[in-house]
Each structure stands twice: as structure tokens, then as C-alpha cells.
């Protein structure tokens, strides 16, 4: 498993390289910490440690089951004076069972409540797959919310689906989040063609391929390090959770 992580010490989002979103002109930090599969009992500490290491972008989702703990970590860091809310970029996601227009706003409000935030910076559709509605009190451990100045994101859309979306969309997506590949870049190519920012997420399985291992050896790098370098230029690299305090600083020289 790819463990981790890219960060630089900083006291504000402006200290880290950012991407400008087309519709809103917001500055999104290029490197974020993903909270998928992070145990609840360690999530708050992991968030605080990440902020100390330099992270300002946190990738959350209601499906991850730890948004309340993420919020606890963010509040602790803010209370300790490590960062302000305005210096953070928080992403969350709409789960598949809440795609119906009447369920979108309650789902967002639930995530905001769990996170203890008044707003999130990016609200993604987790997957382009609508499932049968399950009530919030069961599923969750009056129309689409539309802000013309806010970024419109999508997740895991194949190029054909992205073309279908753009054929009828009045508000083109600003962000496409998809799993990366150090060699193949179909999602990235599609996002650039349509002027949407590409956010990469794990897994990067290619570092285990023999030719990639050989290439990394030629640069005197670990395969994971070379994969991280290859990914940085293509948007954003999220954590494949598993290592935290030790791993957070592992790629500092690579980012520099």
C-alpha cells in the first residue's frame, strides 16, 4: 500500500502551491490529506499532526464515518492557534444514497454538523452512482444547492460520462477527482480538455511494476517516491491512509 504523504511546513494556504479553480477563482492547495480508512480513535490526533506538518487541505466524506472526529481535530488546532478556518480547505462528499434533489441539502447539513463547520470549500459527488435512499439516521454512522460562484466538482467520471454531463450541464464542473495512474492519464487528459482541475487519489499501483522499479532505481529513489513525483505535476495527491505521524514528513524533500 502506498503510505503517504506530501506536505510542506506553512502557516497559510498561500505558503503551499495552489491550483486556481476556474469558476470561483478559489485557491486550492495542491496536496491534501485523505481521511479514508482512518480509525475514529486516531483521526483527531492525525488531523492535528497533519496541520503541524503543514497540511491545509483535508479530504473527508460522510461515507468515511469519521467526520465528527475530523471536526474535533480541526477545532483543536484552531483553538491552539495553529491555524484559522480561513487557512484551511475542507472537502467532503455526497454519498450515493443521497443523489435525489430533496436529499442533497440534508446530506450537506449533516456533514457540516458532524464537522462542526459553517461551510466546506468543496462538496463532491462521491460516485456517479445513485442508490436507493436510506434514511440518515440509519445510513449515516429541498433541492440542489447551487452557488454560481462556487466550484462544481465531479468524482470518478469516465471520459464518456464526462462528455455526457457536459452536453447538458449549464454549470460545467470545475474539479474531476479520480484514482491516478503514474503512466495512464485518461482522466487527467479529459479534465484538461474540459478545463477542469484534476485531483488524483490512491491507489497508485504502478510503482510495483518491474519497469517502474527499475526506473526508480536509476534515480536512486524508492518506487513510491518516484510515483509521488510523477503525480505531483498532475494535480493533487491524496494519502492512502495507514501511516501518520511518521509518514507525514516522508515526502517533504520531494515536494520541495
CATH class: Alpha Beta
User: Any idea of the CATH topology?
Assistant: TIM Barrel
> Unreliable runs, pLDDT <50, ≥5 residues?
1-14, 140-146, 186-198, 235-247, 250-256
CATH architecture tag = Alpha-Beta Barrel
Percent range for β-strand residues: 5-15%
Biggest sheet: strands, sense, closure? 4 strands, parallel
Would you report the number of β strands?
Answer: 9
- The number of helical runs is 9
Can you tell me the overall shape? globular
Order of helices and strands: EEEHEHEHEHEHEHEHHH
C-alpha-based Rg, rounded? 18 Å
Helix content: 25-40%
Keywords:
single chain; 256 residues; alpha/beta; TIM Barrel; four-stranded parallel beta sheet; three-stranded parallel beta sheet; 9 helices; 34% helix; globular; disordered N terminus; signal; oxidoreductase activity; NADP-dependent oxidoreductase domain-containing protein; Aldo/ket_reductase_CS
Amino acid at each position: 500500500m502506498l503510505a503517504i504523504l506530501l506536505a510542506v511546513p506553512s502557516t497559510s494556504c498561500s505558503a503551499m502551491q495552489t491550483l486556481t479553480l476556474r469558476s470561483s477563482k478559489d485557491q486550492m492547495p495542491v496536496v491534501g490529506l485523505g481521511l479514508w480508512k482512518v480509525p475514529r480513535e486516531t483521526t483527531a490526533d492525525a488531523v492535528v499532526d497533519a496541520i503541524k506538518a503543514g497540511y491545509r487541505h483535508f479530504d473527508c466524506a460522510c461515507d468515511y464515518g469519521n467526520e465528527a472526529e475530523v471536526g474535533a481535530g480541526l477545532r483543536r488546532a484552531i483553538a491552539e492557534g495553529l491555524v484559522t478556518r480561513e487557512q484551511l480547505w475542507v472537502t467532503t462528499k455526497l454519498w450515493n444514497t443521497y443523489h435525489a434533489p430533496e436529499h442533497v441539502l440534508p446530506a450537506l447539513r449533516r456533514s457540516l454538523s458532524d464537522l462542526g463547520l459553517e461551510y466546506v470549500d468543496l462538496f463532491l459527488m462521491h460516485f456517479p452512482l445513485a442508490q436507493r435512499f436510506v434514511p440518515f439516521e440509519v445510513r449515516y454512522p429541498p433541492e440542489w444547492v447551487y452557488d454560481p460562484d462556487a466550484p462544481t466538482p465531479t468524482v470518478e467520471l469516465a471520459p464518456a460520462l464526462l462528455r455526457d454531463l457536459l452536453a447538458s450541464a449549464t454549470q460545467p464542473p470545475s474539479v474531476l477527482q479520480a484514482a491516478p495512474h503514474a503512466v495512464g492519464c485518461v482522466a487527467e487528459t479529459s479534465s484538461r480538455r474540459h478545463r477542469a482541475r484534476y485531483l488524483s487519489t490512491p491507489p497508485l499501483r504502478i510503482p510495483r511494476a518491474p519497469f517502474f522499479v527499475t526506473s526508480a532505481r536509476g534515480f536512486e529513489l524508492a518506487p513510491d517516491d518516484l510515483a509521488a513525483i510523477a503525480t505531483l505535476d498532475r494535480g493533487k495527491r491524496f494519502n492512502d491512509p495507514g501511516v501518520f505521524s511518521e509518514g507525514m514528513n516522508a515526502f517533504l524533500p520531494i515536494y520541495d
